[in-house]
Amino acid sequence: MAMEGKESLYDAPASEVQQNQSSPRKSTPPPDNEEKATHVRFLLSNVEAGSIIGKGGSTINDFQSQSGARIQLSRNYEYFPGTSDRIVTVSGMVDDIMKAIDLILTKLLDEFYAAEGGDVDPQSRIRLVVPNSSCGGIIGKGGVIIKSLIEESHAGIKISPQDNFYPGLHDRLVTVSGTFGEQIKAIELILLKLVEDPYYQQSVNAAFSYSVAYNGMNYGPDVVGRKYQNTRFQNKEDRNSSLTIGIPDEHIGIVVGRGGRSIMEISQLSGARVKISDRGDFMSGTSDRKVTITGPQTAVHIAETMISRKVASVSER
Length: 317
Hints:
Order of helices and strands: EEHHEEHEHHEEHHEHHEEH
Oligomer: single chain
Number of strands: 10
Number of helices: 10
Shape: elongated
Radius of gyration: 21 Å
């Protein structure tokens, strides 16, 4: 969740958080779809995630007890590709999930008010993580469904284009913007559409959804909502290997990324270790820096592909 033009602060202890927002759901009788078990995933910054977890896990445990839903977060520094945000997965019955989201968003807003002293509903946004194959059910033919969702909730709803840059990424971001009440209403409407999707429902039974083999890789179920490779259990045939490739010196920056974020993402997604030679240390007879990739053969191949695509995207400009 991100405040537009504001920076969220998290100083108030969980015991002082007051649920002073009236949920727009209380006056609406629950539809039949709310009797189905499902899940919803969204992104939070590290600071926001820490606030939701609370000291010793006190806040997240309290929210689970109050809502009846299960709340899980990806590990620290395990981010959704292309972002520096962690993935939150809330699972259970639809009504319980919405209670949990209500608690989470209210806490963040309460702490925002405590820090800023505001008395007007701030405009904020939350990014949901939705499988590519399920986005059609939200958009509808000619965009008719997403238009109706926007009209009914009064929230802004935008779906990111399909990203083919990251191997194994089958998810898109659905950004919901507006006031607290508008966001809650929009999230509920979107979730009720997703519940109708058999593929989305099947993913509930998968470990954190979509933790399945992709191109022969072994993905671990211990990371919420993402397909980071499980390097603990490798096939005997998939022994460690090493590959050194040359990358033009002027393109090294795109591989490393700001603050090393890109190279960290490549390592996290592929399961390989990526090391770049020092300045002036070139491949023999060239001005290309050495990029050494080590790890299981499959991981090395995935990392090489990701690096090549990054460099190609710059070269084509």
